[in-house]
UniProtKB/TrEMBL annotation:
It comes from Nitratireductor pacificus pht-3B. Residues 1-27 form the signal peptide. CDD domains: PBP2_TRAP_BpDctp6_7. PANTHER family: PTHR33376, SIALIC ACID-BINDING PERIPLASMIC PROTEIN SIAP (PTHR33376:SF4). It comes from the Bacteria. This is DctP (Periplasmic C4-dicarboxylate binding protein). Coiled coil: none annotated. NCBIfam families: TRAP_S1 (NF037995). Keywords: Signal. GO terms for biological process: transmembrane transport. Pfam families: DctP. The keyword Signal applies.
Amino acid sequence: MHHFTRAAFVATGFLTGAIGFSVSASAQTKWDMPVPYGDTNFHTQNIVQFADEVKSATDGGLEITVHSNGSLFKHPDIKNAVRQGLAQIGEILGSRLSNEDPIYEADSIPFLATSYDDARKLYDASRDALAAKLEEQGLQLLFSVPWPPQGIYTKKEIATVDDLKGLKMRAYNAATERLAQLAGALPTQVEVPDLPTAFATGRVEAMITSPSTGANSKVWDFLSHYSDAQAWLPRNMVFVNQAAFAALPEDQQKAVLDAAAAAETRGWEASVKETEEKTQALKDNGITVTTPSAELKTGLAAFGATMAEEWAANAGEAGKAVLDAYSN
């Protein structure tokens, strides 16, 4: 008698799905889309609308099921899951891939691009390079949407960078880890869903992130101050497994690309609105929102200059080309 575990059945299902990429799409194709953030997050809401538009444009021929909050695959595993065909499409914070290539963290160099206009210009300068890197791994970039500008969350007012020394600071990518190191803080990797527990248990004491993440995580339950540093605007990326995309009929491919273009435009507009609404939500719930002091700005800018030099050295000619295109 043969005994199959549930895990075996799941694995078989994934394998079957992956093999299915190579054959022509049937009357209805179903894709799984893991995303790292919850249903109330504006990125997730934008993606749900993207999926709805694809379904509508293909008359139900392509149905994308969005799995929010890391429920199908955790954030660190999403890219490889899509690459391996365990999911067909996914979303991640692009700068998480900086260990693979510096080009992925161009948007996270502190104080290089601090406004939406500058962030868009930087994205335009780096998009082709990003797409080429993903293509090397069998992935196709569909669209990218920025988070609101990053600020500093703490349990007390931060007047200078010296006030960050010794604090356990949440890091979500290499840039935030390096910034914490330069400030003399102790970087600790924590994913968004784990933030309340991490602060409640004292695992972290401060973080640099967006007003969006702060409000969605209800930081007023465990923090008191937000310094609106507007340090950088990191972007999420949505990409698709190239084999899965190639298996679609041409009209469905066009539907995906059209919906992606609309989602990118809509997402950038939503991010601007999100900045205003979520910063106000922080204030409404008792968080003290401040503009960085001149001393704090100077100290953070010095860290940014150091990180920009380090990034340029690591990124080589490709990085230089991006910075040149951005500057011109």
